[in-house]
Automatic annotation (TrEMBL):
<feature type="signal peptide">
    <location>
        <begin position="1"/>
        <end position="23"/>
    </location>
</feature>
<keyword id="KW-0732">Signal</keyword>
<protein>
    <recommendedName>
        <fullName>Lipoprotein</fullName>
    </recommendedName>
</protein>
């Protein structure tokens, strides 16, 4: 009976280890109140821009992305996450307003009389989802 309990615990531990070994990309999308709510678009058609376009457009919402740095998420994976999140709310493009690596957590380690504070860094990115008004 105890062996049967041990096997699921081992599997869960192995899965947790495998997941932490991969770089994670989390995204949170917020649609603006009062903005248009168009039908979803195709992720492959969503542009990623570094500045606001001169072409007429409306802002639909924003995307906040958090990505790990140990190991670092690939730029193409982050861009794909932006495209899929923007497409889900009907965006034609995402304007990246900031993209930086910054401290996201801290922890204390060492004995009581000689502690060190270590920081954990992560990549933070914010993009504004727009739709062209044609």
């Amino acid at each position: 009976m105890s062996k049967l309990r041990f096997i699921p615990a081992m599997l869960l531990g192995a899965m947790a280890l495998a997941l932490t070994a991969c770089s994670s990309i989390d995204a949170h999308t917020t649609e603006y109140v009062g903005a248009p709510h168009p039908a979803p678009t195709a992720p492959g058609n969503v542009e990623i821009l570094r500045s606001e376009p001169t072409r007429p457009h409306v802002r639909l919402g924003e995307i906040l992305v958090s990505a790990g740095t140990e190991p670092a998420a690939s730029v193409s994976a982050i861009e794909q996450k932006l495209r899929s999140e923007a497409a889900a709310i009907g965006g034609d493009a995402v304007v990246v307003v900031y993209d930086r690596i910054q401290p996201v957590a801290a922890y204390v380690r060492g004995p009581m009389w000689d502690r060190d504070i270590e920081s954990v860094e992560g990549r933070k990115l914010k993009g504004i989802v727009i739709r062209y008004t044609r």
